[in-house]
Every structure is written in structure tokens, then in C-alpha cells.
Amino acid sequence: MTKDNHRQQFPALANKAYFNYGGQGPLPEPALDAIYQAYKRVQLGGPFSAEVGAWVVQEAMLTRRAIASELTVPPETIALTEDVTVGCNIALWGIDWKAGDHLLLSDCEHHGIVASVMELQRRFNIEVSICPLAATLNEGDPVAVIADNLRPNTRLLVISHILWNTGQVLPLAEIVKVCHEPPLTPPCQGGGQEEFSLVQGDGQEDLSLIQGGRQEELPAKKHKVRVLVDAAQSVGVLPLNLIESGVDFYAFTGHKWWCGPEGLGGLYVSAEALADLHPVFIGWRGIVTDANAKVLGWKSGSQRYEIATSAYPLYAGLRSAIALQHEWGTIEERYAEICRLSKYLWERLSELPDVECLRTSAPEAGLVSFRLTNGMPHKKLVDLLEKQGIMVRTILNPDCVRACVHYFTTEAEIDKLVGAIATQVV
């Protein structure tokens, strides 16, 4: 399928230059129709009937299979959720935390996840610290940074596969390996490590950072650190094999790079990590009962983390959106085109005066972040571009503008974006 023909199936692309795939992808016409037909079938069959009940079970099974195929995992390892944040919260709250346990996260995580971690710290009195991955965007080794910040009492690392603010792709398999096989002798704690502290003031709990940390050498202890990945920007972009990566928890959504409907995502839980993750949000979809409705236990696999009634017709929409991606090319071909187009955008932006790309080399994914050096507020630029039918967004930390390209973005769209920016900065 040609790119022009492919783009015609996305109504949102008819009247705008769209660069916000990292926020939400446009829904293609076949997915819209699949959702409508599914809702219609539910109503014709009776929303609460044996026929529709059996159909729902079948739809869920087909959707888990479609997702599992994209992630190269067994279907039973997939729990269907609403979005990335729900998936992350299932993993964060399902661990049996003890006071003094340590959670490590990067300095590039989404504020929604940071807020959840803050509440974990308050409720369970765990230790939380931040490792400086932002500084490794153009130089440095993120694997070494994470290894240096692991502690003997670290139980969980929280990172993103592709950092949502800068577009950096982290080497997931190498990171998982260092977490699952930490060195016998831990590093000295400190060295620029940042720790969370919940500070009381005016009746509010706020987040502050304490620089430094403990300087004493801790006793050696070898154990496996679980890894939770925010996969908001990686699913639908990178070729993935989660089994080979060894990752424990991988939370994703269908409404970004897969261009599926909002309100449907998932959580992958590895077979090994399943025993350590207890269901917290609990409902009938995740439990097993006998003939008298007596609760017998959890369903096998990751389905135990599913809760109750959902918008089931969205399942057909997501499967349709995923299938449409394959009509254009394989995931390897789509990723190569994303990288080619993001490099083109990065090169064009780098030619502009008063524009500085955060990366000093071509991006490895579809997120291209840049800042203005002429003093113009980034929000003002974003607002001016939107009035011209060009959609980008601001990022607050670091302060920048983010433009996203997908495999069906065109050079003409990129030229339009760069030309519009040029008129504002020259």
C-alpha cells in the first residue's frame, strides 16, 4: 500500500499536519467502523445476554492474541487495561512492599507515575531515589548509571523504554540484565543520587529532592530487581521481543503509536514475575468461582489483573488499527521509516537559527524535541502553529517543544512544520 493511500484512511490527516502521535494517534476509518459495528452487535444481541457474553470472551481472547503477537509473548501474559497509567499502577501497587524497601526511577518519568510512587512512599515508608538518565541523552551510559544507583534493598526499577520528553531509546535488555544479575559488591551510595522526600507544609504533601544520599558502604547482597517499563512511546514503534528482553512488567496503550481507540491498553507480566505481583484492583473478570459463586482464587496468567465491565467494542477497533499497520509494512520496515523521517526533521530543524535540538545526533525513534533560543515562549510557538493547522506540543521538563513523526508522516508535512517555525524565529 502506498503512503498516500494509507493516509487516506485517517480522517484526522485530511486537514492538518499532525505531529502528536506520542500523545494520541489518529484513529483510522476501518477502526472507527469496527467499533461502531461492535457496538451495534452488542445492542442487537442484547447487552446482557448469553450470546453477547460469549462474544465478549471471544473478543478479549482475540485481542490478547493480537497484542501478544506484536510483543512476541504468550497471550496469557497480557492483561487488558485502560491505558499505560493503569498498567503501571497494577505493577506498582501489587508488590508486597515493606518499610525500608527501595524503589529506583529515572528523572525522565511521566508525572502521573511519579505521583503514584510518591503515594507508595508515604503509605509504605519505602525509600525512593532518582537516577539521572536525562544527562545520558547525548553521552554517557544509561546502563552504568542505573547499575550505580541500585542498592541492596532495591526491589523495583521504574523506567520508560523510550523517554517521553527527549525521545531517547534505552537499551532495555541490558538494563534488565544488570537488574536481574546485580553485582555482588554494591556501589557507594551517593554520587549525585537524588532521593525523594515528602515534605509537609500548609497541609499539603509536596515533592522535594535531597541531593547526595548515604555515603557508607552497604553490605553486599545479591538479588533480582524487578523492572517496570512505561511503554507509552515504544509499543507501535520498536520491534519488540519481551521474552528475550527479560523485562518483568511492560505497561502500554493502544491509542498512541498503534493509532487505536483511547481507553484500551494492556500490561505484560512475565511468567516469573507473576507470582510476586498480587492483584490490587479486583473484580469478577480476574477471579475463579465455583457453581455457587464461591471465590476459589485468581484466574491463571495476567488475566487475574483485569477487573470488570469495559468498553468491549474497543477491542475490535484496536485489532483493526494494528492490522492496518501491517498493510503498509512489517514492524521493522515501519520503524526504519520512522527513523528516516525523524532524522529528516532533526536535520531540517538543526538548520534553523534560534532552534536547538536536544539531541546532537539523529533520533532513534519518532520523538524529536527542540528548544527556541530567541526567548520566545514555547507555548506561544505551539499555539501559533496550531492556528496554522500544525499540531505539536510543549514539554515542561526539560522546557522544549516535541514533534512526533510516524511512518506515514510525509516530507511535505515536515517541510510545512519547519517552514512555519522559520517564520517565527527569523
How do the helices and strands line up, and which of them pair or pack?
Blueprint: H1 3-7, E1 17-18, H2 29-45, H3 50-71, E2 78-81, H4 84-94, E3 102-106, H5 111-124, E4 127-131, H6 142-149, E5 154-160, H7 172-180, E6 194-201, E7 204-211, E8 226-230, H8 242-245, E9 249-253, E10 265-269, E11 287-289, E12 295-298, H9 313-328, H10 331-350, E13 355-357, E14 367-372, H11 378-387, E15 390-391, E16 393-395, E17 400-404, H12 411-425
Parallel strand pairs: 1-15, 3-4, 3-5, 5-8, 8-9
Antiparallel strand pairs: 2-10, 4-6, 6-7, 9-10, 11-12, 13-14, 14-17, 16-17
Compact summary:
This protein is 35% helix and 19% strand.
Key structural traits:
35% helix; alpha/beta; four-stranded antiparallel sheet; nine-stranded mixed sheet; 426 residues
